[in-house]
Design a protein that fits this description.
Oligomer: heterodimer
Number of domains of chain A: 3
Structural class of chain B: alpha+beta
Number of helices of chain B: 5
Largest sheet of chain B: 5 strands, mixed
CATH architecture of the largest domain in chain A: 2-Layer Sandwich
CATH class of the largest domain in chain A: Alpha Beta
CATH class of the largest domain in chain B: Alpha Beta
CATH architecture of the largest domain in chain B: Roll
Helix content of chain B: 25-40%
Strand content of chain B: 15-25%
Order of helices and strands of chain A: EHEHEEEHHHHHHEEHEEEEEEEHHH
Number of strands of chain B: 5
C-alpha cells in the first residue's frame, strides 16, 4: 500500500502547471488535496510519473460570487468551503450535502474541484454540481473553456477533461429566489461513499431531482405537472432508467428501491422548504 | 524519482530532512523521525489509525505525502502528552475503557483532539460524527465515546 515512484513539482502559477501538463500529458497528475489521488496511488490503481502540486497557486484559493455563480478555485478545500460564512444562504444545497462528504480528516485536505475532477459516481459534490446545473472551468495552453456539469461528467471516474487540461474552478449557481433544496443519502457508515444519494431543487414549476451512486454518473431528471402531483410512477421509471449494478455494498434492486423511497421524501422536503 | 528537502515542525521541533517524493507522511513520521506512535493501518484512508494534525487540522497521514507537509507544523500523539504528563484525553481513555488492544488509539486521540478544539462540548452524536473517520475493532466504540465526553467535561471544569 505504497505509491510507485514519481517526480513531484510544486508550482506557483497556473501557467507553470499547464505547461507541465502540455509536456507530460497523461503521465502527469494534478495534486491538490490528494484525498482521492493518493489513495488510488497507494492501491497502485494509478501510477503517475509526475505530480504537479497546485496548492501554492494563490489565484486558485478564492471563493467568489459573481454573475449568479459562486466560483470555487481549485485549491479550496472542502473544509474551507464548509466554513464559508455565506454557504447556507447562497448555496443551501451544498450546505446540506457537504457534512456527508468523507470525514473531518479528508475534508481538511480534500478540495472541492478535486472531488469533481475525480468524478466518483457516489460522491456528493459531483451530484450537487449536476443537480444545480453548475459548470467546470478548464485551462490548458490551448486556452480556457467552461463546460456544463452534464457535459463534464461523462462516467465513473471519467470526465471530458483532456490530458493537457486542468480544472481551475467549479461554478455553483447561487440560490434561486423562492426555491427549496433537500439532500440525503444512504451509506453503510457516516461519511462512506453513498449507496444512493438524492438531491432536489424545488421551484414553483418543477423539481430537479439528481441521483448519485446508482448510474455511472450523477443523473438529473425534471419533474413537473402530473408527474410531480403523483411522483411514484415517475420515480419508478427514473429508477429503471438509472439501472444500477450489484456490488459488495448493495444490489441494483436495493439501489432502485432507494431511488423510489428517498426520492419521494427528498422531493417533499425540497417542496416544503420553498420560501 | 525526485527528492526534496522538507522543513517541517513536528511536535514543536524543527526538522530539515531529505525525502523521496513518494514518502507518505505516515512513513516519514515513523521511519525517518522514529515517532512510532502514529500507526499504519489500511494505508488507503479508511481506518484513521494514522491520523495526525497538520497546522492544527486533523488529517490521515497515509493520504498525505511528506513533501506536502513542507513548511507546516505537524502534531502526532507524542505531542499530546508524555510520560506521566498526559493530556486529559489520554487519561480519560485510560479511565473510561476507551481502548482494548490500543492500535487505533493514537488516531482516535488525534481525531478527538481536533473535535474538541472545534467543539469544546460536543453531544454524543457530534462525538460519533467527529470520530467517524476512525475504525476500532475491539471496543464497540461506546468506551471511546464515553472517554471523549469525559475529557470534554474535565477540560471545561464540569
Amino acid at each position: 500500500m505504497k505509491p510507485s515512484a514519481f517526480d513531484y513539482q510544486r508550482v506557483a502559477r497556473v501557467e507553470e502547471a499547464i505547461d507541465l501538463l502540455a509536456r507530460h500529458g497523461e503521465d502527469a497528475k494534478i495534486l491538490a488535496g490528494g484525498q482521492s489521488l493518493v489513495a488510488m496511488m497507494n492501491y497502485r490503481l494509478v501510477e503517475p510519473k509526475l505530480l504537479i502540486d497546485i496548492t501554492g497557486i494563490e489565484g486558485l484559493a478564492s471563493i467568489e460570487e459573481k454573475g449568479g455563480f459562486v466560483d470555487v478555485g481549485a485549491a479550496v478545500t472542502q473544509a474551507r468551503l464548509m466554513a464559508w460564512p455565506a454557504l447556507a444562504e447562497r448555496l443551501p444545497l451544498l450546505a446540506k450535502a457537504m457534512p456527508h462528504i468523507g470525514h473531518f480528516q479528508t475534508r481538511s485536505r480534500g478540495t472541492v474541484c478535486g472531488s469533481i475532477a475525480h468524478s466518483d459516481p457516489s460522491s456528493e459534490l459531483p451530484l450537487v454540481l449536476a443537480t444545480l446545473g453548475g459548470q467546470v472551468v478548464l485551462r490548458s495552453k490551448r486556452g480556457s473553456r467552461t463546460l456544463a456539469a452534464d457535459d463534464f461528467q461523462t462516467g465513473p471516474l471519467s470526465t471530458a477533461r483532456e490530458p493537457d487540461e486542468m480544472v481551475v474552478a467549479v461554478r455553483f449557481p447561487v440560490r434561486q429566489a423562492g426555491a427549496g433544496y433537500a439532500f440525503d443519502e444512504v451509506t453503510q457508515r457516516q461519511g462512506d461513499f453513498a449507496i444512493c444519494s438524492v438531491a432536489a431543487v424545488a421551484t414553483a414549476q418543477e423539481v430537479r431531482l439528481g441521483v448519485g451512486g446508482v448510474a455511472g454518473r450523477p443523473t438529473v431528471t425534471r419533474l413537473s405537472g402530473a408527474a410531480l402531483a403523483n411522483p411514484d410512477g415517475a420515480l419508478n421509471a427514473f429508477a429503471w432508467e438509472l439501472g444500477g449494478s450489484d456490488d459488495i455494498h448493495a444490489t441494483a434492486q436495493y439501489r432502485r428501491q432507494l431511488v423510489r423511497r428517498i426520492g419521494r421524501r427528498i422531493i417533499e422536503e425540497a417542496q416544503s422548504c420553498r420560501s | 524519482m525526485s527528492k526534496h528537502v522538507i522543513n517541517v515542525t513536528v511536535n514543536g521541533e524543527a526538522h530539515a530532512v531529505e525525502v523521496p517524493a513518494k514518502r507518505l507522511l505516515a512513513d516519514f513520521l515513523r521511519d525517518d523521525l522514529l515517532l512510532t506512535g502514529t500507526k499504519r493501518g489500511c494505508e488507503t484512508g479508511t481506518c484513521g489509525a494514522c491520523s495526525v494534525l497538520i497546522d492544527g487540522e486533523v488529517v490521515k497521514s497515509c493520504l498525505n505525502l511528506a513533501v506536502q507537509a513542507d513548511g507546516r507544523s505537524v502534531t502526532t500523539v507524542e505531542g499530546l502528552g508524555q510520560g506521566t504528563n498526559l493530556h486529559p484525553l489520554q487519561t480519560s481513555f485510560m479511565e473510561q475503557g476507551g481502548l482494548q488492544c490500543g492500535y487505533c488509539t493514537p488516531g482516535f486521540l488525534m481525531a478527538a483532539h481536533d473535535l474538541l478544539s472545534r467543539n469544546p462540548s460536543p453531544s454524543e452524536e457530534e462525538i460519533r460524527e467527529g470520530l467517524s473517520g476512525n475504525l476500532c475493532r475491539c471496543t464497540g466504540y461506546q468506551g471511546i465515546v464515553d472517554s471523549v465526553k469525559n475529557a470534554a467535561e474535565k477540560m471545561h471544569g464540569r
